[in-house]
Amino acid sequence: MRYYSTKQTDGGVAFRCIFCKHTVTTLDFDSAKGNRRTQAAAAMNQHAADVHLPRPILVPVRVGSRGAY
Domains in the chain: how many in total? Predict the structure, then answer.
């Protein structure tokens, strides 16, 4: 699932988070590090994962007959 929407802008593409007003543009990234659009999409997905998406709760599970965790 994409956690952002895109919109063409002068000279680039703006990516906006679907949960909040956080935005990045392709102009924020360095083409020497790869495709700017790919970098922007990865940044938006990381933002969504860090800020908006629930994290799984890890619960210890008993293993063996002696009650060791």
Answer: 1
Q: Which residues contact 54 (CB under 8 A, 6 or more apart)?
A: none
Cα 2 to Cα 44: distance, rounded to the nearest angstrom: 9
- The answer as to whether 56 is a domain residue is no
Residue 24 belongs to some domain of the structure: yes
Token pair listed for 15: 């990516």
pLDDT in tens, 11-52: 899 999 999 999 999 999 999 999 999 999 999 999 999 999
61 found inside a domain: no
Q: What is the mean predicted confidence (pLDDT) over 47-66?
A: 81
